[in-house]
Amino acid sequence: MGYLELRGLRKSFGGQPALAGLDLVLERGELVSLLGPSGCGKTTALRIVAGFETADEGVVRVDGRDLTGVPANKRDMGMVFQSYSLFPNLTAAQNIAFGLRLRKVRDRAGRTGELLDLVGLGHLGKRYPHQLSGGQQQRVALARALAVQPRVLLLDEPLSALDAKVRVNLREEIRRIQTELGMTTLFVTHDQEEALAVSDRVGVLSQGRLEQLDTPAVVYRQPASAFVAQFVGVTNAVLGTAEEGGVRLGAYRLTTAAADGLAAGAAVKVLVRPEDIGIAQHSGQDNGALVGNVLTQSFLGAVTRLSVRLDGGDQVVRVDQPSSRAVDFPPGTTVALDPSPGRLMVVEV
Ligand code: ATP
């Protein structure tokens, strides 16, 4: 039995399903992300867990206890939203102490000080929200959510309003604090890198259902569906037709077991990640490799990304090389591409 259980959750708005039977079980102390595109039902799921929304069907349990009918303020959950939602007329310390006062916790000043230290704001307790940066305000919001020692922490896109560098710092901090406290946490995000970086497991949601629930590495390396593959990672989708033992892409043929089971002649998409494609200067000999022309070469920091137009059509394939070992292929270079056969996914279109 898990610690936080979502069982068969269904919810429609005006006849449109937002959740279509969501099952998700978190172990105690686990951080699970709900990842998916806008409108897939992530926030609805979180709001049902928090008690702000009622499910049409299904139950939420914490530690075996059914929360149906339990109001939000009796659920023992801490929540952090995208908007910082601090009380503007209270200092950081007073914001954190607010929940402690409601619960009549003793030694509120001591506890508030500990929480400020926990989120790295020990010296800023006297500041008002407008005197704090966005990232600092979100740290206060996190401390306030943790102050009441919730059984479950719910994070709804807590980093989305922050700029890139602050976002990365704060997500590492959230992960550190969550691990330190052993806090069972449900984290909603549409940012795949964020989900992969902070989670024990990632649940990829599409149209109100879980497409996959796995560790970040498995979601990335073994996507359970074309949707997951395309949502997680910049994935190339090259159109072709299935053949015995492989796929035909225009004039080229890829030999791969990934097309096994598909009828010969079926229209397919070959999904392959940019980093799973080898690239070399084309020798001029036809050895069956995919040949194309470099359109652009972009330095992205850790990787250098090339876009290559395949000969005989207008399909463009992106190829990443680690920048530290990148070979220079200026635009116009004719190159041979070698997608790693074990890393392909072939789906019917
Ligand atoms: P986003 O990342 O854009 O917030 P999401 O995955 O969190 O998206 P939800 O907010 O859960 O998605 O919404 C799922 C669907 O339910 C959407 O189509 C949305 O328009 C609809 N929806 C959510 N809340 C309501 C509401 N209170 N009234 C009507 N429709 C709603």
Automatic annotation (TrEMBL):
<dbReference type="Pfam" id="PF00005">
    <property type="entry name" value="ABC_tran"/>
</dbReference>
<dbReference type="InterPro" id="IPR008995">
    <property type="entry name" value="Mo/tungstate-bd_C_term_dom"/>
</dbReference>
<dbReference type="InterPro" id="IPR027417">
    <property type="entry name" value="P-loop_NTPase"/>
</dbReference>
<dbReference type="GO" id="GO:0016887">
    <property type="term" value="F:ATP hydrolysis activity"/>
</dbReference>
<dbReference type="GO" id="GO:0043190">
    <property type="term" value="C:ATP-binding cassette (ABC) transporter complex"/>
</dbReference>
<dbReference type="Pfam" id="PF08402">
    <property type="entry name" value="TOBE_2"/>
</dbReference>
<dbReference type="InterPro" id="IPR003439">
    <property type="entry name" value="ABC_transporter-like_ATP-bd"/>
</dbReference>
<dbReference type="GO" id="GO:0005524">
    <property type="term" value="F:ATP binding"/>
</dbReference>
<keyword id="KW-0813">Transport</keyword>
<dbReference type="InterPro" id="IPR003593">
    <property type="entry name" value="AAA+_ATPase"/>
</dbReference>
<dbReference type="InterPro" id="IPR013611">
    <property type="entry name" value="Transp-assoc_OB_typ2"/>
</dbReference>
<protein>
    <recommendedName>
        <fullName>ABC-type quaternary amine transporter</fullName>
        <ecNumber>7.6.2.9</ecNumber>
    </recommendedName>
</protein>
<keyword id="KW-0067">ATP-binding</keyword>
<dbReference type="InterPro" id="IPR050093">
    <property type="entry name" value="ABC_SmlMolc_Importer"/>
</dbReference>
<keyword id="KW-0547">Nucleotide-binding</keyword>
<dbReference type="GO" id="GO:0015418">
    <property type="term" value="F:ABC-type quaternary ammonium compound transporting activity"/>
</dbReference>
<dbReference type="InterPro" id="IPR017871">
    <property type="entry name" value="ABC_transporter-like_CS"/>
</dbReference>
<feature type="domain" description="ABC transporter">
    <location>
        <begin position="4"/>
        <end position="232"/>
    </location>
</feature>
